[in-house]
Amino acid sequence: MLLMRKIEEKVGHLYIQQKFGGFCHLYIGQEAVVAGTASGCNKEDKHITAYRDHAHPIALGVHPKYMMAELYGKTTGMSKGKGGSMHMFHKEVNLMGGHGIVGAQIPMGAGIAFADKYKGNKAVTYCSFGDGAARQGALHETFNMAMMWKLPVVFIIENNNYAMGTSVSRTTNVMNMSEMGDSYHMPSKQVDGMSVEAVHEAIEEAANRARKGEGPTLLDINTYRYKGHSMSDPQKYRSKEEVEEYKAKDPISLVLETIKANKFASKIELEKIQAKVKDIVEESVRFAEESPDPSKEELYEDVYTQKDYPFIKE
Amino acid sequence: MRTVQYREALREAMCEEMRKDENVFLMGEEVAEYNGAYKVSQGMLDEFGAKRVIDTPIAELGFAGIAVGAAMNGLRPIVEFMTWNFALLASDQIINSAAKMLQMSGGQYGCPIVFRGGNGTAGQLAATHSQSFESFYAHVPGLKVVTPFTPYDAKGLLKSAIRDNDPVLIMESEKMYGDKGEIPEKEYLIPIGKANVRTKGSDVTIVSFGKILKVVHAAAQELQKEGISCEVIDLRSIRPIDYDTIVESVKKTNRCVVVEESWPLASISSELAYHIQRYAFDHLDSPVLRVMQSDTPFAFSKNLIEEALPSVKKVMDAVKASMYVS
Q1: A–B: how many Cβ contacts below 8 A?
Q2: What is the pLDDT of residues A279-296, one digit of tens each?
Q3: What is the rounded (10 degree) CA torsion for A297, A302, A303, A307?
Q4: For residues A15 and A9, what is the distance between their CA atoms, to the nearest angstrom?
Q5: Contact at 8 Å (CB) between B88 and B129?
Q6: To the nearest whole angstrom, how far is the Cα of B87 from the nearest Cα of chain A?
Q7: What CATH number corresponds to the domain at position B13?
Q8: B252-261 pLDDT, tens per residue?
Q9: Domain range for residue A196?
Q10: Does some domain include residue A265?
C-alpha cells in the first residue's frame, strides 16, 4: 500500500513536470480497496478495472517500473506503450485491463467469469468500477445476467463518493449503493474501504460464494480519493475539511497503527520498508526514462492477430 | 453439391465449428428455445444443450460485453443480433472493446469473436429497422466485416470468421435467409478479404455487396440483352477490401459503377471512388458513378421505398451514363 502511495505521489509530480501526457487518474487514498482484494484472492483469479488503474498491477505483484514505463509510452510498458495510463494489462497476473470507457468493464468482467465457469475453472473474477460507472445501464443488464447464470464474479464499487465532480447524492435517491443488487437478488454489502482487513474479509467471503457456484456478490466499498478525479481537476465540488476528515482515517496510517500496536514489525524494519519503497520508486522512474520508445513499425502491430493484414497506408 | 437455404448454410457453419471446438458457443436473443428469430439456429439447442446455445435477455450492450469478456478469457463466442439495428446498443462493446483489445493490451489479450445478424432494409420496416452498417463498422481498425451474398458464401465465410482470431462482423439479411443455393458436400472455407468476380464482362465494372447484388444481377442481365457487358464484382469482405481485384477489373473495362444499399456519405462507394482514381486514374474513360440508397431515413410507404432504393432501372441508367449512351 505504501508502494502504491509513493508511486502515485511520484506519478503526480512527474505529470506536473510534463514528463508524460494523457489523462492521469491517481488512486491515492483508495489503496486499501485493491490491497484487500489482492490479499483476499487466489492466484488463478482474474481482475478487471477502470481507468484508475495504476495501483492494481502493483497490488498484484507486478514491479511498478512496467506501469511507469507505460505512463511514459515506452515499449517496455505493460501494454508496450499502446495503452497508457488508462489501459494497464498484465497477463501473468491476470490483470485484464484498465478500461477507459466508464462501466465498459462491468459486462466484460462478467464475461471473463462466464468463460471460467464454462470451462469448469475455479477462478473468480474481480470487477472493479467507480460509483460513477455504477450509473451505466450496462451494470443493470450485467447484474441481471450474472445472477441468472450464477457467474463467479465479485462486483466491486470503488465508491470514492464522486463521479468526477458529481457526488453520489446528486446522482441518486438511493445512497446505500449496495442496495443496487437487491433488484437482482444479488448478495450485497457495504464495506469500509479505509480498512484493508475489512476489504480482505469481504473479498474472501464473496470469492468463496462464487467458487461454490452461488454466483456474484456486490461489494459497495466506501473509500475516498484525496486527489482530484484527474490531474486537471480543481476540486471545487468538495471542502478541504471533508478531505481532511478522510485523511484522518488514512488506510496506510491505520495499517501502520495495527503493526505498531501488535508489534508485527520493529521500527528498524519499518524504516527498511520505507527505504526499499523509495528505491523501487526511483528505479521505476529511471527504468521508464531510460527505456526506448516503440519503433514506428509497432503502429501496425497488435491491431490484428493476422500477420499480413492489408492496412490502408495511402 | 446440394441445395440449402441461406439460414441452413449459416447453421451448418456454426454446427460444424461447434462440433470441432468446445470453446465455440452461440448466444443471443431467442437463439435457443425459440430456435432463432429467423430460424438460423433451429435445432442447435437440441444438439449442443443450454450451455452452448444461450438465450439472453433483451440487453444487447450487456450480452455483447459478456461475450467480449469471454473471448478475452479463451472462448470463441458467436453473438447473434436479431438485426444490426438493435446492435447499435452494443456498438460501444464492439468498437471500444472488441476492436481495440489486442492493441490496448499490447498484444496480450485478443478478442476472437463473431457478431452476426440481419442487416439493411427488409420491406416496410421504416427508419429504425432498415439500416446498413457495413461502412459504419468497416471504418474501425481492429474489426473485420463480411457480407455473404449466397448460401455458399454464408457457410464458407462464417466458418472462416469463427476460426479467425480477430473480431469479425457478419452482415446478413432477413430477406436472404430463405434464399436457396448450392453448397459442396465436403467441408470448405472462403477466405476473408477476397472479392468474388460473379460475372465476367468487358464494358463496365459493377462493384457491389450483399443483398442488393440481386438488383445488380438483374440489371446486368438486361444490359446484356442490349449488348452491354458488365463485370459484376461482389466484395464479399468490406474490411479488408480486396482493392486489387477491383483495380484490375477497372483497368480492363475502364468504367466503374458502385451499387450500395446504404447512404452516400462516407460509404464504401466513396472509398472505392478514391481508390480507383488513385490507382487507375489513367485507365478511366468516365467518372466512377454510384447508385445508392437515398440520403434520408428509410420511409414506410411503398412508393417512398421504391424511390429510396437502388433499382434495376437506376443501375442500368448509371451503367449507360458511364458509357455515355442512353
Answers
A1: 152
A2: 999 999 999 999 999 999
A3: 80
A4: 10
A5: no
A6: 14
A7: 3.40.50.970
A8: 999 999 999 9
A9: 2-296
A10: yes
